[in-house]
Design brief:
The protein contains four helices and 27 strands. By secondary structure, it is mostly beta strands. A hairpin with a 6-residue loop joins strand 24 and strand 25. The relative contact order is 0.12.
């Protein structure tokens, strides 16, 4: 660094160029407020330097012989990297990491004890990512959801540096909410991380996810090359309490029972049993073609089904099932779904929205809904859920 400093002092207008040291000594063109000079300008050093720099690091600017008064780092798209100047003015560090495949221009203004103000500039580029990791996230922007809706991110490629990725994820809520991230495998087999609160969300709460992932290395899966964000609002409390022993679904809105519907759940004693525990309404899918071969039940059925409400990735729905009308409220005779009459299903379909919990009980079931099978997060006790964070 001393050799670089000498170069600037002898030839302050020399353009910066890639070097072999840890940083580039920036080009410096200094003037005092009156247009004259007041001694030597400060020496500014920028890290990283040159071309093909590895992404994922911060930008560091240091000054010798003066103090930094402002630093601006601009990328090729016109965006900026925010940062902080140290209390003594000797250094500046960006808050964000540099992204792959980008060019950056650094402009640093300094002031010497003799009153000389000067601005130094430097340019560097980062290497392109050999692999890019993308994210599928739920819920979508400006959605209105139920009280059990988690924030869920599913990654296109493996995430081996889970702690590094989780540090870039921030949740803010409009009302005090205790929550935590939990890592799992999605039903698709991909890596996934969900944020859920300790208890159901308070109606009216606004939740915002800020995922500052651009420039973050996910490990073996490659780099993130963009940020993600979403904001959604929690609607009224609506809970479907399904009792497979009594063959009923009781709809509870804001703590009050509104209606009890006779239903028929999964057939006992085999693969057609229903799941129990808390499932979360994933989507209202309307009329759906349901084929038993897609869920490993052979050629048991292939039909169009109305008022379909998806509860799991494995194929459990609540829906109209008029072909089972003689069993509603009497026996569980479905292939795993929660069936009800056309009229009841049409009414119920209009009452619910994604994020509403289905609290399912029953003695003869396949077990609890797993976290990665839809949004089975609520079946993990809170203290164990907290240990699923990479930062726990």
């Amino acid at each position: 660094m001393r050799m670089a400093a000498v170069v600037v002092l002898l030839a302050p207008l020399a353009a910066c160029s890639p070097g072999t040291g840890p940083g580039t000594t920036a080009r410096n063109a200094g003037h005092d407020d009156a247009g004259g000079t007041r001694g030597r300008p400060a020496t500014v050093t920028v890290v990283p330097e040159g071309r093909g720099v590895r992404a994922g690091g911060t930008v560091k600017v240091t000054a010798a012989g003066g103090r930094l008064t402002s630093v601006t780092v601009t990328d090729g798209d016109g965006g900026t990297l925010a940062g902080t100047i140290s209390a003594d003015g000797a250094g500046w560090t960006s808050r964000r990491k540099v992204a792959p495949g980008s060019s950056y221009r650094v402009s640093a203004t300094t002031l010497t004890e003799g009153g000389r103000r000067s601005t130094a500039t430097s340019v560097f580029t980062t290497a392109r990512a050999t692999a890019v990791n993308k994210v599928d996230w739920r819920p979508g922007e400006n959605a209105s959801v139920g009280v059990a809706q988690p924030v869920s991110l599913v990654f296109d490629r493996p995430v081996t540096d889970r702690a590094g990725v989780e540090r870039q994820l921030k949740i803010t809520t409009s009302s005090p909410t205790e929550g935590s991230w939990g890592w799992m495998k999605d039903w698709s087999g991909r890596d996934r991380v969900d944020w859920r609160p300790r208890t159901y969300l308070k109606p009216g709460t606004k939740v915002t996810l800020t995922a500052e992932l651009n420039g973050t290395d996910s490990g073996d899966g490659g780099w993130f090359v963009r940020d993600y964000s979403t904001t959604f609002t929690v609607g009224a409390s609506r809970i479907a309490k399904v009792d497979l022993d009594r063959k009923t679904l009781t709809f509870v809105r804001n703590g009050s029972e509104v209606r009890t519907i006779p239903v028929s759940g999964g057939t006992p004693g085999g693969d057609k049993r229903s799941w129990r525990g808390t499932a979360v309404l994933m989507a209202k899918e309307g009329t759906v073609n349901m084929n038993s071969e897609t869920v490993g039940l052979g050629d048991s059925y292939d039909k169009m089904v109305d008022h379909s409400m998806r509860l799991t990735w494995s194929g459990m729905y609540a829906h109209a099932a008029p072909w089972n009308d003689r069993w509603f409220g009497k026996a569980n005779m479905s292939s795993g779904c929660i069936g009800m009459s056309d009229a009841d299903a049409a009414w119920f379909y209009d009452q619910v929205r994604p994020g509403d919990p289905f609290e399912i009980t029953g003695r003869d079931t396949k077990g609890e809904v797993a976290p990665g099978n839809g949004f089975g997060d609520w079946n993990v006790p809170w203290e164990r859920w907290r240990t699923m964070s990479a930062l726990s």
